[in-house]
């Protein structure tokens, strides 16, 4: 069960890693949307500025700002790709740790089942041993009673009568000897 505890902790840590990675991806996606909206807005302002023939300094300012936004977008794309790679790796790690946890749980269940079966077998053996002891005790009592009866018969001289009775009974049962 120590392995199960460790695997549970590993799964929890992997889940936390997935949550952090997903959060980072969402954050970067939101940042990308803001930058793209800003880029669109300043591209429109640049066109308007050029159409109205405003000052060159304002047009240059818009262009410089758009270049900076473009650089931020490129950097955000790189960060987003890296964050997605981390997210994918964390997800694979989570799947691996969950699989390990499932293996440990199955192992524990198998061991519990083996222990339960062994306990049932031990209980069955104890019952059978008790039953056998009871039968042997009964048989011994019956045997002792028979021995006591024979010894009393011998003491009273009936033994020769019993032997003769048995011989007579066997002769009467055998048709070849009887007539």
Q: How is this fold's topology laid out?
A:
Blueprint: H1 2-52, H2 56-156, H3 159-173, H4 175-178
What does it look like?
- With 179 residues, this protein is mainly α.
- It has helices at residues 2-52, 56-156, 159-173, 175-178.
- Helix 1 (2-52) packs antiparallel against helix 2.
- It is rod-shaped and about 150 Å long.
- The chain starts with a helix and ends with a helix.
- The model has no long low-confidence stretch (mean pLDDT 83).
* Helical residues, percent: over 70%
- Poorly predicted regions: none
Separation of the first and last Cα atoms = 84 Å
Average pLDDT reading: 83
Question: What are the secondary-structure elements, in order, as H or E?
Answer: HHHH
Number of strands: 0
What portion of residues belong to β-strands? under 5%
The secondary-structure class comes to mainly alpha
List the defining traits of the structure above.
4 helices; 179 residues; 96% helix; mainly alpha; rod-shaped
Summarize this, please?
The chain is mainly alpha-helical. It is 96% helix and 0% strand.
